[in-house]
Amino acid sequence: MADRSSHRAAPVHTHPADVPLLTALAALADPVRLQLVRELAGAAEWSRGCGSFDVPVGKAALSHHFAVLRAAGLVEQRDQGPKRLNRLRREEFDACFPGLLDLVLREEH
Amino acid sequence: MADRSSHRAAPVHTHPADVPLLTALAALADPVRLQLVRELAGAAEWSRGCGSFDVPVGKAALSHHFAVLRAAGLVEQRDQGPKRLNRLRREEFDACFPGLLDLVLREEH
């Protein structure tokens, strides 16, 4: 039985260990991506589909932002039926960039 | 006696306490600025003039990079005769963005 997700290419991931510091910083230096990361940090893993975020950008831009987050080792995605589900790669990103997510997830700024 | 530095406007600074997280991240997410910050971290305060950095950009671009670093609360500058001297605002930046400079100054990435 064909999965509806089979119509699109599986998302490409980069492990945070293979991510340059500049790439990690640039991925987080964007208000939309910061919001996505913060919302994912507050949600259970694999509980949020890409369409579930209330961000002020269109579908194509959102898809680009998720690609940047994957390339920075921040987000892992998997397709489940029509949904693309997300998890924040918190533990492995922390191991490579200690303190960076903690800083970003503080509420002060 | 007129100081030669009086011919140009004094540099404008922003205290790190007034810097949004996105501004701090964006300031560091650039290879030239990362090099400037790393070299300043390894030098005594006020020991490095703006012209003393071996970075692959012209004078105007370098001036822009320093303006970005000042606006992010990362660098303080003062004019001394013909030289504009720099110091990394390490302590006050650390207090506002704990761990970020430590991460950036690690050598691994």
From TrEMBL, chains A, B:
<keyword id="KW-0804">Transcription</keyword>
<keyword id="KW-0238">DNA-binding</keyword>
<dbReference type="InterPro" id="IPR001845">
    <property type="entry name" value="HTH_ArsR_DNA-bd_dom"/>
</dbReference>
<feature type="domain" description="HTH arsR-type">
    <location>
        <begin position="13"/>
        <end position="108"/>
    </location>
</feature>
<dbReference type="InterPro" id="IPR036388">
    <property type="entry name" value="WH-like_DNA-bd_sf"/>
</dbReference>
<dbReference type="Pfam" id="PF01022">
    <property type="entry name" value="HTH_5"/>
</dbReference>
<protein>
    <submittedName>
        <fullName>DNA-binding transcriptional ArsR family regulator</fullName>
    </submittedName>
</protein>
<dbReference type="GO" id="GO:0003677">
    <property type="term" value="F:DNA binding"/>
</dbReference>
<dbReference type="InterPro" id="IPR036390">
    <property type="entry name" value="WH_DNA-bd_sf"/>
</dbReference>
<keyword id="KW-0805">Transcription regulation</keyword>
<dbReference type="InterPro" id="IPR011991">
    <property type="entry name" value="ArsR-like_HTH"/>
</dbReference>
<dbReference type="InterPro" id="IPR051081">
    <property type="entry name" value="HTH_MetalResp_TranReg"/>
</dbReference>
<dbReference type="GO" id="GO:0003700">
    <property type="term" value="F:DNA-binding transcription factor activity"/>
</dbReference>
